[in-house]
From TrEMBL, chain A:
Taxonomy of the source species: Bacteria, Bacillati, Bacillota, Bacilli, Bacillales
Binding partners and assembly: The complex is composed of two ATP-binding proteins (PotA), two transmembrane proteins (PotB and PotC) and a solute-binding protein (PotD).
GO cellular component, one term: ATP-binding cassette (ABC) transporter complex
Native source species: Kurthia zopfii
Catalytic activity: ATP + H2O + polyamine-[polyamine-binding protein]Side 1 = ADP + phosphate + polyamineSide 2 + [polyamine-binding protein]Side 1
Residue span(s) of domain ABC transporter: 7-238
Keywords attached to this entry: ATP-binding, Cell membrane, Hydrolase, Membrane, Nucleotide-binding, Translocase, Transport
InterPro entries cross-referenced by the UniProt entry: AAA+_ATPase, ABC_SmlMolc_Importer, ABC_transporter-like_ATP-bd, ABC_transporter-like_CS, Mo/tungstate-bd_C_term_dom, P-loop_NTPase, PotA-like, PotA_ATP-bd
Protein name: Spermidine/putrescine import ATP-binding protein PotA
Automatic annotation (TrEMBL), chain B:
Family: Belongs to the binding-protein-dependent transport system permease family. CysTW subfamily.
A single BP term in Gene Ontology: transmembrane transport
Protein's name according to its UniProt entry: ABC-type spermidine/putrescine transport system permease subunit II
Cited CDD domains: TM_PBP2
GO CC annotations on file: plasma membrane
Location(s), subcellular: Cell membrane
TM helices/strands, residue ranges: 12-31, 57-84, 104-126, 132-153, 174-197, 230-253
Domain (ABC transmembrane type-1) ranges: 61-250
InterPro entries with a match to the protein in the record: Bact_Polyamine_Transport (IPR051789), MetI-like (IPR000515), MetI-like_sf (IPR035906)
Keywords: Cell membrane, Membrane, Transmembrane, Transmembrane helix, Transport
Broad class of the protein's primary localization: membrane
Length: 368, 264
């Protein structure tokens, strides 16, 4: 455990009294001052992890460490952690100032200091002068900020955010993504953000943990996870992707539907069964003759920035294409892509082996 | 909203007249200078004067108010804590059982409650009088307070409690700073319900009261039995008048509240 580790989970499991297991033997370490995102579909255990860190739950098995100290049984009100709740959980009987001051009043901080710190926190979230407002007078975005101010005013070491943007409309959500990221960098605190929205995760995080069914599937920087998903679930969950089963013929050559393609992956067993991922934006429209793949356009949607084409190859695999150019529905077209666009996923590979394999590519290309 | 038809208006007026006629009849004759409700002789305030000159009656009035205020206060405290207890029960079966037992007490006839209290108090050896009446009133008011407070508690979002804990609040802080302020309207409603139930209770008081202690409803009952006296009409008139003032007061308070709410 390094000096910089603030939270670590060691083989943590959580089951409910009815026997359902929501977390299965999860271990990870979080470093101080980073923006982490727990990403996954509902029921994957991401909120459970958050509640374990906050202290609303105790792990059934395993240990949780905070700054190197075991905190399994430390109650929520004694932890240096504050949460921004999904429904904000602002106290309706208190005005904005008193909501933010709540934690300080409990700690019996002197009145003058409360006033100063609350006003500072409100300024931090661009709500200076809103102290006397009542909660029902505030809009959704403003309530969100009050909830954040209420969390940061106590100067916690970690701020937990439980899907705080899900109730906002798209425009406000994007705006808040920028603000949250900026806030985290200004405060320099550890943020742990829970979401099921992959765009939010990619936009804000230093590191993403992708969870499914109580397991961490993959962790890494947004770019790593997007470009090098470990398995079908991650590839499918993060962004849109075309996932085709294939066979790794030999190093640098993969075959899909009997057709061989050049790729950059190596070190797999010859003729090993694999999943092949190609992102829709890496596919380029071209003529039938020039295309590495020939597909028929099934439907086309205009998405604003690009056209989204749903196409099928002769074997019946669907290929999603993001293209700036329009195509004719029903027409045969060619698809072109670089060898780098192909990402190979071994079936049932652990995260450890996966990381090793990726590192070996880097080492060899360095030698060259 | 659709305007109500003439027929419906007529029906409503008819019902209201039927409901209010006996009360107005009673009050009308309280101004009668004769001593029966058979014929109205001339206007007088003598009966009201008699009420205010009757020290015994005034003491009974004060007794009634003291019992009502005290029983409402204690039952509100006990009932609110009980409601918090019921609401926080995890076991659904147990919670529903508690709730049903609470409701049974509300709907069961006062006569039975009164009689059972009488048996209890004589067995335990509590002297019948002020204490027994107060205890009886507290007991039958508690379920009413519970039923008034519980909806507010159920409406409260659990994440508020999580948020308070998250911000460092101990159990005591959560109760005094979050739960009680949140359910305050329910507590007030429960208090006033308990107050009115206690003020107009006859059956339970009748059973458990003893020598030398009486409340207004019991007293009116015995006066009415002793023979028709227009003093009873005068007391009833006064009680009705006070009730109207209370209702109007409540009305104006709630109007002011909604106006404040709208401004928000």
């Amino acid at each position: 455990m390094s000096e910089n580790t603030i939270i670590s989970f060691e083989n943590v499991s959580k089951s409910y009294s009815d026997g359902t297991q929501v977390l299965k033997d999860v271990s990870f370490e979080l470093e101080r001052g980073k923006f982490y995102t727990l990403l996954g579909p509902s029921g994957c255990g991401k909120t459970t992890i958050l509640r374990l860190i906050a202290g609303f739950m105790e792990p059934t098995e395993g240990d949780i460490f905070f700054n190197g100290k075991k905190i399994n049984k430390v109650p929520a009100n004694e932890r240096q952690v504050n949460t921004v709740f999904q429904d904000y959980a602002l106290f309706p009987h208190l005005n904005v100032f008193e909501n933010v001051a709540f934690g300080l009043r409990i700690q019996k901080v002197a009145e003058a200091e409360i006033k100063q710190r609350v006003e500072e926190a409100l300024k931090f979230v661009n709500l200076a002068g809103y102290g006397v407002r009542e909660i029902p007078e505030m809009s959704g975005g403003q309530r969100q900020r009050v909830a954040i101010a209420r969390a940061i005013v106590n100067d916690p070491e970690i701020i937990l955010l439980d899907e705080p943007l899900s109730a906002l409309d798209l425009k406000l959500r994007t705006e808040m993504q920028y603000e949250l990221r900026e806030l985290q960098q200004r405060l320099g605190k550890t943020f742990i953000f829970v979401t099921h929205d992959q765009e939010e995760a990619l936009a804000m995080s230093d590191e993403i943990f992708v969870l499914n069914e109580g397991n961490i599937q993959q962790s890494g920087t947004p770019v790593d996870i997007y470009d090098e998903p470990i398995n079908r679930f991650v590839a499918d969950f993060i962004g849109e992707s075309n996932i085709i089963s294939g066979i790794m013929v030999r190093d640098f050559v993969v075959s899909m539907n009997g057709q061989e393609f050049e790729c950059v992956d190596q070190g797999l067993n010859p003729n090993e069964k694999v999943d092949v991922v190609v992102r829709p934006e890496d596919l380029e429209l071209t003529s039938v003759e020039k295309g590495k793949l020939v597909v028929t356009v099934d439907s086309q949607l205009f998405r604003g920035v690009h056209y989204e084409l749903s196409t099928y190859d002769e074997a019946g695999n669907e290929w999603l294409v993001h293209s700036l150019k329009q195509a004719d529905v029903g027409a045969k077209i060619g698809l072109d892509f670089d060898p780098e666009a192909i990402h190979i996923m071994r079936l049932n590979e652990t995260e450890e082996d996966f990381d090793k394999r990726l590192e070996s590519y880097g080492a060899e290309s360095d030698e060259k | 909203m659709e305007r109500i038809s003439k027929g419906a208006k007529f029906y409503l007026a008819f019902v209201m007249i039927i409901l209010y006629a006996p009360i107005f009849f009673l009050i009308f004759y309280s101004f009668n200078s004769g001593d029966s409700m058979v014929n109205f002789e001339s206007f007088t305030l003598d009966h009201y004067k008699a009420v205010f000159e009757d020290d015994r009656l005034l003491i009974i009035l004060i007794n009634t108010i003291i019992v009502a205020l005290l029983s409402a206060l204690f039952s509100t405290i006990i009932g609110t804590l009980g409601a918090i207890g019921i609401a926080s029960m995890r076991n659904r079966k147990l919670r529903n059982t508690m709730l049903s037992m609470n409701n049974v007490l509300i709907v069961s006839p006062d006569v039975i409650i009164g009689a059972s209290f009488l048996i209890l108090f004589t067995m335990v050896g509590i002297k019948l009088g002020f204490t027994s009446v107060l205890l009886g009133h507290i007991a039958f008011s508690i379920p009413i307070v519970v039923i008034m407070v519980l909806p507010k508690l159920q409406e409260m979002n659990n994440s508020l409690i999580d948020a308070a804990r998250d911000l460092g609040a101990s159990k005591r802080d959560i109760l005094t700073r979050v739960i009680i302020p949140y359910i305050k309207p329910g507590i007030f409603a429960g208090f006033f319900m308990a107050l009115t139930y206690s003020l107009d209770d006859f059956a339970v008081t009748f059973f458990v009261t003893g020598n030398g202690f009486s409340t207004l409803s019991v007293e009116i009952y015995s006066m009415a039995r002793a023979g028709v006296s227009l003093t009873v009409n005068a007391i009833s008139g006064l009680v009705f008048f006070v009730t109207i003032i209370l209702v109007l007061g409540y009305h104006f308070i709630s109007i002011r509240k909604t106006k404040v709410g709208v401004r928000k």
